Fold this protein.
Amino acid sequence: MEPREPLAPFLLAFPGPLRDRLVAAVLSGEKVSTTGLLCEYELEQEELPPVGERSALIDSDGREVAVVEVTEVRVLPLGAVDLQHALDEGEGYTSVAEWRAGHERFWHSEEMREALGDPAFTVDDGTMIVAERFRVVERLG
């Protein structure tokens, strides 16, 4: 195997049970989309990933387990998320309302609020989100 260039990390949630479930869903092919907050990118002064960018999917132990490639990036208000995106997150959601409730629990969690530096952070229909689609191009390890 040829050595490859180091890849930026593709991180889902925080290390722990949720990340473990999400990484497993990516590896099984169930999860082909993810959602982040635009304000996270702004806070980190991070550019949105361009289509075609490849990253290393990281598990809870910090290991690179797969190479994923971004296939689509959309910035839209939270209230505009559609059912296909919710289904493609691979977390078993069957409606946008169910998807949103799960994401609000995460975004309103103490851990997320601490990461954002805002103990009272909340989302609403107008909160801008980043909806990413991706595909696994290589499994590692």
